[in-house]
Structures are given as C-alpha cells and as structure tokens.
Amino acid sequence: MINITIGNQLKKYRESRNYSLDEVALLTNVSKPSLSNIERGTTSPSISTLWKISKGLSLPIAYFFSEKEVNYEIATMESLVEIVSGDDLIKTYTAFTWDPSDNFEVLFLELLPGAKRESKAHSDGTKEIIILMEGELTLKIQNDNINLLPKQLLRFNADSDHQYINAGEGKCKFASIMIYPYKIDKIRETL
After folding, report:
1. CB-CB neighbours of 153 under 10 Å
2. Is residue 23 part of a domain?
3. Phi and psi, residue 119, nearest 5°
4. Any residues with CB less than 8 A from the CB of 19 and at least 6 apart, and which?
5. Residue 32 covered by a domain
C-alpha cells in the first residue's frame, strides 16, 4: 500500500538525520500526531500535507514513493502512482522512482472542469515546466494569469505561491517537471 511506502520513507529520512518527530513537525508545519500516523502507515497524507513535508525537509515529493534505486526506468501512463489529493476534481501522479542524484521530478495532473489546485511556494530557486497535453489551463502566479492551450509549454519560477485552474469545459491533463536548484547527493550519503 502506498501509505506504508510513504511512512517508511519519511521515517527512514527522519532517522537518517536524527530528527525527532517534534523537529520534523517544526520544519514542516505538520503536527506531530499527523507525522506519527503517516510514519506508521495508518493514514495517507493529502497532497498538500505531502508538499509541506517535502518542502520542509527539502525533498522532492517523489522521494516518498520510492524504495529502491534503478539503473533505468520506463513508465507508462497506466503505471503512474497516484498521490491522493482529497479533491475528486484533481488527480496527481508521480512518474518515476526518486533518485537522489537527480534534481528533478516528473508529475502528471488531471483537473476536471472547475478544478483549482493551490500550490504553496516551493524551495527557493525551484523552476517548474508545464506541458499541457489536453484541455485548457490557467496558471495564476502572483498577479499574472497565464492561459495555456494544448501542446503549449510554460517554464516559471515555482518559488512563489501559484494556482492551477481548469476554466474549460473538458478535462485538463498536463505534465509538471519540477527542477530543484541543487542536487540531493548528500541525502544518499545519509541513507
């Protein structure tokens, strides 16, 4: 089950850093009881909670879905791992096993008509590339509304709050490539 994988990965990272649950709660702004439940696998965190943990610990969100290193990996749309968002209008998927030597991760999102997805600022220097495959997408970044049509790409600084909006009448599907400002080789040394 995915909640067991997420919990194992969180606990593994926390223990590798000798962090207490209190310290992780302080870094991530997620309560100690919630973190404890996630680590034990008794609950699956929402996408917003997972982003808070990811940002607070300076880890890509894909880290929480990986358990092994691979030399190569082929993903299909059917093999993507869903990140439960708690919103029936939004589906988010991670594509590849996280590799600590990478400074990127690939996500796929589907927004039904009327869906809005708030995203808090990512770590300083983080860039995001959006590749719109289907539908219409409005991206609100600070005071700018950027409208994308299928087969358009957008790169932007993701270190400020932003919002994804499907104002169209059909489903909106897009890939999001998160590019972090650093490589995370140091994490591999501690795991």
Report:
1. 12
2. yes
3. -130, 120
4. 27
5. yes
Q: Which two tokens stand for residue 81?
A: 């791992």
The pLDDT tens digits of the residues spanning 29-81 come to 999 999 999 999 888 888 788 888 988 888 877 778 766 655 666 777 787 87
Share of the chain above pLDDT 90, in %: 39
Which tokens go with 75?
């993903």
Same domain, 132 and 42: no
Q: Residue 14 sits in which domain range?
A: 2-68
Of 64, 47, 73, nearest to 2 by C-alpha is 64
In angstroms, the CA 178 to CA 19 distance is 26
83 within 8 A of 59, measured Cβ to Cβ: no
User: Same structural domain for residues 60 and 29?
Assistant: yes
| 60, 177 Cβ separation under 8 angstroms | no
Q: What's the token pair of residue 164?
A: 């994804």
8 and 83 in a single domain? The answer is no
By three-state DSSP, how is residue 15 classified? helix
DSSP secondary-structure letter at 166? -
Is residue 57 located within the same domain as residue 15? yes
Residue 99 confidence (pLDDT): 66
Q: How many beta carbons lie within 10 A of that of residue 79, not counting itself?
A: 10
Buried b (16+ CB within 10 A) or exposed e, 30-57: beeebbbbbbebebbbebbbbbbbbbbb
Is residue 131 within 8 Å of residue 187, measured between CB atoms? Answer: no
Residues in the chain: 191
